[in-house]
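Title: Prediction job returns without error message
Component: structure pipeline
Severity: low
Priority: P3
Assignee: unassigned

Description:
Job completed but the reporter wants confirmation the result is attached to the right record. Sequence as submitted:
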Amino acid sequence: MRHITFYPEGVCSAQIDYDLDDQNRIHNLKYVRGCNGNLKAIGRLVENADAAAIADLLRGNDCNGRGTSCADQLSKSLDQALGR
């Protein structure tokens, strides 16, 4: 497993941590700060999911006109981790 730490920009969360296995499936997603319940729910929903599919699904999600969101920042992190 490869551990990823990402520092999002323009959102309430300060850090995103997760692991990618050899098949690029997401495990142990955790956000530091932000909307606790919603971000825990995202972690449950993406557990063992394909990282590329999740990045495609969440990319462009907007939070209150910020042009990004915690979910969108996860997509950016996943794209970076996958070299996309």
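Comment from assignee: result matches the submitted record. The longest helix spans residues 70-82.
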